[in-house]
# Entry
Amino acid sequence: MSDHRTTLFADGVIEAQVAHGVARITLAMTGGDGKAVPCGMLCVPVTQLPALVNGMGNLLRQIEERVRAQVAQQQQAPAGEAAAADGAVQAPSGAFRFQG
# Structure
């Protein structure tokens, strides 16, 4: 059995509705004219919606913590001093993995 996952980029929501116990969320991406264009639909059983929303909230909190830690680290050691102390410049990573 092959592991096939569809990647969908969305930067907004156009509408959401609930019917027959399923939340249907129309996702959007910003078009060239700056307006929202539908790009897909996320369908989630209403009974699972709280877990999904809580997971997204936890992800957001982890991102905020990571950004705060990076800002604090940069404020404590300006780039020039950090390079002299470490002997090398390390570029901060813009990607990281979170555990749900």
Summary: Residues 12-76 form a domain with the Nuclear Transport Factor 2; Chain: A, fold (CATH 3.10.450). The radius of gyration is 20 Å. The chain has two helices and three strands. Strands lie at 12-19, 22-30, 36-45.
